[in-house]
Amino acid sequence: MPLFGRKRKDEPEFVAEPPAPLAEPPQVDENGLRSMADHRDYLLSQVEELPPFGQQLLDAVGLSLCEDIVTTISLPGFDNSAMDGYAVMAEDVAAASEDRPVTLPVVGEVAAGQAAQHPLSPGTAMKIMTGAPLPEQADAVVPYENTDRGADDVRVFEPSDRGRHIRRTGEDVSAGELVLAAGDRLDARRIGLLAAIGKDKVLVRPRPRVVVLATGSELVDPGLDLPSEQHIYDSNSFLLAAAAKAAGAQVFRVGLVGDDPDQVRQVISDQLIRADLLLTSGGVSQGDHDVVKQVMPELGSCDFAAVAMQPGKPQGFGLIGDDRTPMIMVPGNPVSAFVSFETFVRPVIRKLMGVTPYTRPVLRCRAAKAIHGSFGRMNFARGVVSVDADGGYQVELAGGHGSHLIGDLSRANALVIIPREVEEIPAGHEVDVWLLDDDQ
Ligand SMILES: Nc1nc2c(c(=O)[nH]1)N[C@H]1C(S)=C(S)[C@@H](COP(=O)(O)OP(=O)(O)OC[C@H]3O[C@@H](n4cnc5c(N)ncnc54)[C@H](O)[C@@H]3O)O[C@H]1N2
Ligand code: MOO
């Protein structure tokens, strides 16, 4: 059908292909609930690592390497001095002492970046700076501190054994050696090594582009006046955008969309072009205005589930548009949105980035006071982990269990994981936590 103009009577009606269905979702329990781990693994099975991309070193910090790196140069690249001092032959200074110094003529000087003018002759010394190549025949360095720092002749007060203060070719890394492997995550130390072997670009998985938006007609952008007492500021799109950024994503915060199906349809469709992952908050439970749940199945294949966790029970997932862009729809309560981020979104971002492990390491902690769970649902309580008098980790709650308590959430540094079959962790017992401030 032409884009403009009237449809001819004989022209067949355009019928959109129904989106391919999602893979079979996991089983639910007798209460219709899916386990947190099943839901997370299901989402992970539905997304693929992003294809590799060449990046400059500093743009690759935190990213996962997609190639093996074999160095073509050795480190050090040549025998060189570890100290400012004099290159000598060890046997010439073997008898040196404070009382009976050895005096040697100084026959030249070599600084870092230069080459020695000539080999060292027996019975002579050559001034040498840290990092400068060792003159041929020299086999030890005497640091300035063990000499009188003489210019024409130098008095040496201490012996330097063969090899002393010399950094040997290839003692750190040898040419031809595999220094980093595909799958390694690039941190500052590895970036330093890549630079040291002369690499300026590497093949890595890029930062996923995560588009974040919040739905709800009650929401107002921070910085504006609230139009009425019934309005609230949008915290979730900022919370989720900040968390996605900390997880390594490149984030586009689109901001607010009202509970209007046309608007949601339009904004999501417009954003697909720049998204590796769409992330929305709100509109996924049972409410009359839960518009995300209503609209998204028109734009892709979706799965809405009740997960056996508290907070974060209502969850949505979809593969949206022609490119089947993954979309995670988290619930609107701010703490639910955050816990959903930790349990589902962060692992998915890490999978897109090819960074393992996808989940946070679990730390065992002593409960300073009793912590009650939510029997039948895995509870992610907000906790404060500290070091107790015995040097062990202890945890206590940062506040209440309500999924609206963003003030309490801001005081927490951990999520305390209380299994679904546990009603209470008594004081003094051990419990699992995720530390939130470590990007492991
Ligand atoms: N009849 C039922 N009602 C609810 C159920 C249920 O199973 N049956 N589940 C509850 C649970 S659990 C959750 S969690 C919430 C999730 O609801 P929605 O995802 O539909 O979220 P909304 O209704 O849009 O909002 C919930 C709550 O959060 C506030 N909110 C929303 N977006 C933001 C934002 N960007 N910044 C700050 N605060 C936000 C919103 O004003 C509501 O107070 O549903 C329960 N209900
Ligand atoms: O599960 Mo909702 O996420 O309790 O607040």
What does this structure look like?
- GO terms for molecular function: metal ion binding; molybdopterin molybdotransferase activity.
- Residues 211-351 form the MoaB/Mog domain.
- This is Molybdopterin molybdenumtransferase.
- Residues 1-32 are annotated as: Disordered.
- InterPro entries: MoaB/Mog-like_dom_sf (IPR036425), MoaB/Mog_dom (IPR001453), MoeA-like (IPR038987), MoeA_C_domain_IV (IPR005111), MoeA_C_domain_IV_sf (IPR036688), MoeA_linker/N (IPR005110), MoeA_linker/N_sf (IPR036135).
- The protein folds into 4 domains: 36-50 and 206-353, Molybdenum Cofactor Biosythetic Enzyme, Chain A; 53-75 and 171-204, Molybdopterin biosynthesis moea protein, domain 2, CATH 3.90.105; 80-167, Molybdopterin biosynthesis moeA protein, domain 3 (Beta Complex); 363-435, Beta-clip (Beta Barrel), CATH 2.40.340.
- A hairpin with a 4-residue loop joins strand 19 and strand 20 (325-330).
- With 440 residues, it is of the alpha/beta class.
- Helix 4 (261-271) packs across helix 5.
- It is elongated, with a radius of gyration of 32 Å.
- The protein starts with 35 loop residues before the first helix and ends in a 5-residue tail after the last strand.
- The strands form 8 sheets. Strands 15-12-16-20-19-17 form a 6-stranded mixed sheet, sandwiched between helices. Strands 7-4-6-5-8 form a 5-stranded mixed sheet, with no helix packed on it. Strands 21-24-23-25-27 form a 5-stranded mixed beta barrel.
- Residues 1-7 have low confidence and may be disordered.
- It has helices spanning 36-46, 188-196, 236-246, 261-271, 291-299, 334-353, 406-411; strands at residues 53-56, 69-70, 80-81, 85-88, 102-110, 125-128, 140-143, 153-156, 166-167, 178-180, 201-204, 209-215, 219-220, 232-233, 250-257, 277-281, 300-306, 309-310, 314-320, 325-330, 363-367, 371-372, 378-387, 393-397, 414-418, 424-425, 430-435.
- It contains 7 helices and 27 strands.
- Helices cover 18% and strands 28% of the residues.
- The structure holds ligand LQZAQKY5 and molybdate ion.
- Ligand LQZAQKY5 binds at residues 214, 216, 218-219, 232, 234-237, 281-287, 290, 311, 313-314, 331-334, 336, 403.
